[in-house]
Amino acid sequence: MIPSWLHDLSIAFLVLGAACALVLAIDVIRHPQRMAIMDVVWPVTALFGTGATAWMYFRYGRLATKEAADREHEKVPFPIMVAKGASHCGSGCCIGDICAEWLAFFVPAVAVWFGWQKIFADKVFAVWILDFVFAFLLGVAFQYFTIVPMRHLGKLEGIWQAVKADALSLTAWQIGMYGFMAVAKFWLFGALLGAALEVNSPEFWFMMQIAMLCGFATSYPVNWWLLKAGIKEKM
Hints:
Distance between the termini: 44 Å
Number of helices: 8
């Protein structure tokens, strides 16, 4: 049974994430980023990063607006650039995972197409494959709209460079996210609480908020290397 305090805590953090996302969405409309895709990245990241993302945006994200001087952007420390790069990847993962989870919930046949009942006894493993597909496509799209304008690449070259820049980062993110969600579903809820972790519950999305932070942690060192190697653009 899910305790009432966990239910209330889940709702509180989801409301906090939505509030932070709304504040950042309003601010990027008023102060657009130099890199247009970051106008999407910041609010989406705030859905799970909540106050930490809001702090990073107002402390460093504002230095990368169209109205900021070039020298202001140069003041961003490298570790923050890495964090922005990881967040850029995570925002695509976040949107992809939300879409995939709700699609599989409302249309269970989709999970069957990805192996549920034929390969996997538990639906979650099939949905994770769907999650990865959605996250990969969106992650590459986000990276494409970052790299192409900065490097003035053609479409095919832009897609290839986007895949190179995002594949490792996105995979590392999903590993961290899946790892925590496995612990939450099978141990915390399944073994300890004896309850199902359902997509249509606040608890599921609260766990996803934490899982996204775990994804950020596992993708951070990968993004550090990608930026140092020049494979991914500094933000």
